[in-house]
Fold each of these.
Amino acid sequence: MDQLQKRPANYVPLSPITFLPRANAVYGDRTSVVYGRVRFTWRQTHERCRRLASSLVRTLGLRRNDVVSVLAPNVPAMYEMHFAVPMAGAVLNTVNTRLDAKAVAAILRHAEAKLFFVDWEYVRLASDALQIIADSGAPVPLVAVIDDLDRPTGVRLGELEYEALVAHGDPNVELPQLEDEWDAVTLNYTSGTTSAPKGVVYSHRGAYLSTTSLLMAWEMGAEPVYLWTLPMFHCNGWTFTWGVAARGGVNVCIRENRPAEVYRAIARNNVTHMCCAPVVFNILLEGGGDTARLGAPVHVLTGGAPPPAALLERVERIGFHITHAYGLTEATGPALACEWRAQWDKLPLSDRARLKARQGVSVLSLADADVVTNDAKMARVPHDGKSRGEIVLRGSSVMKGYLNNPEANEAAFRGGWFMTGDVGVVHPDGYIEIKDRSKDVIISGGENICSTEVEEVLFRHPDVADAAVVAMPHPHWGETPCAFVVARNKAAGVCEDDVMAFCRKHMAHFMVPKKVVVYDVLPRNALGKVEKVKLRDEARKLAPPAQKAKATKATKTTVSGGRWGEQPVAHVMAMSRL
């Protein structure tokens, strides 16, 4: 066996960019991208990507491993760069559009970006970020504006413009060949909700395997019509930027997830698939979804935060067929998927929703995923659905590592595993379920309280549309749960006494929140995750002092909601633990 060799005929480096020439060859005349009045075929998309890659190499002089950053919503240019940038041998860095100028500048500096593409809508933000970089004395990247393809605005920032680079490129030029599948393909930054964002580097191999395994886990067939409700900057659209090309599908691009626009896009394009964080379900329900049904089923892959079973049940009634996934930036997007079993179809909707709320089993690009004890032994926990530990992963889709951050790499990789920081259990059928982020576990009087379990109950309250629970300091118990809720009917509001009574009826009394805070909207980052750091800050301000620990009178006040403005709140002080 040892004499057998790797040859060009039997060994080609794995890369997700190979899906594009295949789409050109197999699906060339089929629609690839829809954006407003703009439509491209796969043949046109292939040519546009090659043209852009040509301009990056020949006109702008980009070299292997140079970083190209982009600040843009889900528009055709954002999609095309997922192929064109790595085709040029460079590394694509998609930047969260909801960051402020300081954070954008920090990413550009840390990534040492050579080129910065900016959508016209974010020119002001980009200009402020570039000024911060210039003031610091660091190198400022070249800038190219992405004008609106459907309705050009004429907005510019410098001389370079995306469509001009595409037009002037040579689609027949010989582009750099990938020699090592371990080479970097993209650079993504973590959300930074608890610390400074870290640069997560994906390999061509990891991105390829993650894409194909997720297509199988979701059972996405040929020629899907995929609606881009998930930001492409989030883990490269959970790899579906490449995956839709692999299946010869249609990319329906929209700039914002407004309910009317989402429902209109679904109806006009006969959308079959979409991905989103659970927060988008609330947007769709508020947009009239509770009383309407879709003309045809839409398959939805959801993740980013554990979706409450009650919320899944509501959106399933509309016609959205939900598959729950779990992942993180460091795992090249989804690492677990709740693969559906035929025997579950016979169960009542509420039971199906409960099963779908679990995170599931590992995708095929992972060699292993498990839950281990949080000690030196790192022993696998029993598969009893009760024993808790930290979810750990290993496999080719796990990141290469954090860019220029050896300390974080040492902490993340331990004992042959990648440590996720998430607390979970394994059910007897092998399905993993998250119970909390390790930092979100509330320790009250020596008892561990999972915030997600309290949130699950809150979501079942008929007047609650959204909820989040964090730890609040308490002079006697150390910590107690503090609940932040949003009323389903803003005009009628939500009754705090009813919420407390509902919680006491449906959970152990020591788990019942000791305060209920009403917000118009919960703070969320661009990935749809509740920004619990901000809620913890508010909870600390509302914590009872020692001399008031036994107060029972409900009081009303206002808290500063930062970017949400002044928010009316009502909190119930120190309800009885028993």
Amino acid sequence: MAANQSTEWRTVCEKFRLAQELSEIESRKDPENNPFRSKYKARDLLKEIHCSLKKNHIEEEEEEEEEGEADNEAGGESTQMADGEPGNECGKTCIGDSPAGLRAARLAVVHYYLGVNHIETEELSAGEQHLMNCMKLIDKCTTTRENVSLFVQARNQLGILWAGRDEIEKAQGFLEIAESMYLLYMREDGQPPLDLQDYFVLEGEELSQQEETRRFEMAYTHTLYYLAQVYKNLQHYERSGQYCHSTLQRQLEYKQFVPLEWAINAATLSQYYITKTRYMEARHCLAAASVIATLAGEIPSEAAAKESDAECEKREELLQKRAEIARCWIKYCLNLMQDAKKLLEDNIGELDLERQEELKRARRNEEEEKEKGRKSAILFGSSDTFDSICSLEEKVSSMLPLDFEEARSIFLVGQSYVAQAKEYFAMDGHVTDHIEILQDHSALFKVLAFFEQDLERRCKMHKRRVDLLEPICKDLNAQYYLLICRQLQFELAETYYEMMDLKLAVADKQDQPDVHTIKKFNHLCSSSMKYYQMFLDSTRSPEGKFPEKLEDDLLRPALVAKFRLARLQSKLISNNLATQLENLTHSLESYSFLVQYCEENPEAKKSVETELELSIEMVSLLPLKINRIRSKMAPCD
């Protein structure tokens, strides 16, 4: 929108250009002790422009009034504008309809930039006032090619402002209007609209239609991004996910993204899809994240990083973000296998073979329909990245595994990402992250073991879990990492417990277990008992007293630990009657503890219904067994 080429107008345009440069470029170089220096200079220039426009606005209005009076005296009452264009039938002054409309639009643009400037310098009230002034000027107009971009961007800024004040519903209102304005304009017009910059350029310096379109689409992408955050805060997670996906897709389409930032956002979105068991979408997000992350460049070598601070920072950032994406892949593989386990297990947690066959038959019938759904899903990528994304997707299934081979293929992908993640999140410097990755690796082995029908091989998989976690548990300082130590102790106790059950099942198939089998079985029992006891001891006071009332987060784990201890103590194999008596006595004490605790704290019963029922039964049966052993030990008359 070029204007007259007067010296005064050239000065206004130059000030506007300089204000933009100060705000967007020079401000990045401002010193820490004066972070808004360039923003303040830009504000001064915008104020000067505002004064010039206001002054001209008043002078030109006076001239128009004089001309109007002269026309009235001459009896000229026309509904036509001076340039021959028809007037606005709705009575509103619209940008482009008259010089007055153009002046109002320019003032609105200046108010907009002043509003943004004040917000960026943390003067929110002043920023809000300028944005509202902008709105008052443009709300007098209908939505047209000349003003639609300003309509959308002003409401975007007000949406951000109110979201920052935790007025989420107010922010939602502004942003949803911005969205509807964009959609209405694209439906009814769709031509490249004027950009805000177009109001302050000289003739011949206007933006190209391609650039106008790019900027307008960028503004709408921001609208979608902010709406995604708003819906998330309102706990409208489904809508938030949809808007996140649309935002990411548009950022790629219009090349408006920073590779690492985009990749992390896509990987984060995948975790939402995982919670909804939408694994095709989750896999697509992760594949896109991995591919787009490579656009950030090669990882500098250690030697280069040592020589340059910039290279060192780049290396650190690339390694960290790619390791974070690898962790999201681990969660994808783990959850995919765990969801399959839930679907396939029977009422005692074992693989239901009939259910397995039923699901396999159903899958063969549904594969074609799922493929159609896949093609209709929102896809990421341009022509140069789409093939790479699809290629990466093909390396791992998005369908729930139904047998060991399918589960193993997913497990191997997850394990490869474990190795990648551990390269950055090493024990030295990233203790918590490193241990969480090891726990996920252990969980991968655990769920893979579910699909394995050979008991000995299954036992070896659990042994791998022990090998992963036991060294860490022994070395970790419980004073600083109490919660993690408890998690590791409980998991190790459970792992040894599962191995004990497997060895017991193997032994049941033998006529008479040999000495080696008995020794191995007792070792597993003792190891499980040791870690359950360590877990329970971690809840004691500094004086060594067990809590009279367990905290909510410890209630079930502690009572289950007591129950498992009781069972393990009764399972220990010994030919010595005195040892048998001692083991069963300890077992009875543990069962009795659980029963007594639930009697004194009735609210605890719901947490351990099954364990309590069995404990009550054992409390009545074990004394009989103990008495029989005592009678055998009694000397003969």
Amino acid sequence: MTTKPEAPDGGGSDLLPKTLTTLTEGYDLGAFRADVIAGLTVAIVALPLSTAIAIASGVGPERGLYTAIVGGFLVSAFGGSRYQIGGPAGAFIVLVAACVTQIGVAGLVLATFLSGLMLMGLGLARLGSYIRFIPFPVTLGFTAGIGVIIFSSQIKDLLGLQLTGPEPGPLLEKLPALWDARDSFSLAALAVALGTIAVIELTKRYAPRLPSLLLGIVTAAVVVAMTGLPVETIGSRFGELPRSLPVPALPDLSPDLIWAALPWAASFTLLGAIESLLSAMVADGMAGTQHRSNAELVGQGIANMGAALVGGFCVTGTIARTATNVRAGSRGPVSGMLHALFVLGFMVVAAPLAAYIPLPALAGLLAIVAWNMIEREEIAALVRASRAEALVLAVTFAVVVLRDLSEGIVVGFALGGLVFIRRMSEAVALEAEEVPAAAVAAQDEDARARDIVIYRLRGVIFFGAAARLGVALERIASRPRGFVVDLTDVPFVDTSGARMLHALARKMARRGGQLYITGARPEARRVLRAQGLRAPEAIFLPDVATVFARDDRHQTRPPDPNR
């Protein structure tokens, strides 16, 4: 498939859904056929994943289907990515399960609705582009941590364990509870899970065009039904699935429930924004397109509110299904909308058959998802490249696994910011410059006797570097009476850097010296003057040579502080 690269959109067009862009470019029967094939392919992948994620999240499998159908349709219809596929995502499993435990399914639905409002607000406020500033080690540690959490949530069904009470959410509490239930281990459950994993992986390797996930689940269901293996199924735990969507209805909007749901809504919003925009960026990299971050957040917000109206839960862009959509030959958002309709068709026609799906098979499927979320090659490359970034990754991973997803993002982002500040401060250079030969000839004297030194600053002069530079410049300024600071190679000066230079100018003035600022760009000059750096404390000149030309014209020297 070939696609035409798209330029980033500006102005009001950054909120325009990609559906309208695709249709206005021209959409013919051939494109529709391609989208039908792509939509069907993605639906076959989404069907088992949606039910598995819903069950792992502590809600009924039907809610995963509602989320995939309504949320998936609205993400494609109103989002800012040409190829994004929305639906329930593995990254939300832990958050959703914890939310259900604390405030119930009604609270989860309300938190999803409120999250939709928040996502729309982020998009309308044009904050989508800022999500991209999250450092790569943070996203890498974050997704790896989610992979570990997802796998740990499936150990119970993988091994067929029977816990005496509710399964704890935190990993450090979950593992002892699972160990206490070791006597209930089921060899049949483990065999079904391993068999499902084997079928999926062998299909991927030897018949990659076949729907490996669906084939693995169907094979497990057939084997269990024919052999009568004693394992739990969707039917034995949840009963028969509904064959239609529920009538849309607003969630419970009681003040107490809203107050309880707000923290969860904020967590859903943060994670959903990151996950969806990462997925859109993956699609851009595969197809050579450019998504609209703000439109994507608005679309995600609409999708979450729509899913909540039918009892669904968190919707976000899903990387695996989006990548499948691109590889299947999608021409645009229509394939995403068709995928949702195909899932609806499967639910209407085959809902009774879903009752035969073994839960260990779904656990095996999610174990593969968890394994694939840990990008082992990327982690190894990052560890080899930078110890500091490896530390950011490790801390993010540890906080996500042992504490909380949102805390992991915040701590990782803060630590990544500190690493960046340290590196930027080390990149700032202070270099001594020779007095221009022309100035020496014009003065007809030894330039050193005039007691003027020149130092060139290179890099961004900001708060991280201001203290170190200030100490170095003050030591130098203790000797000369004329001090030239050349900012030609300084693209930016923040207020901390400006105050550092202002303090230097005052020190020079007290000693009877003169500070010259040369080569400052208009933006830097504006910040310096706003912090009080003006004549006569500091004289702004276009370049170093002008300093000496000025002395020639006026025949002046810096005053002697001893007079």
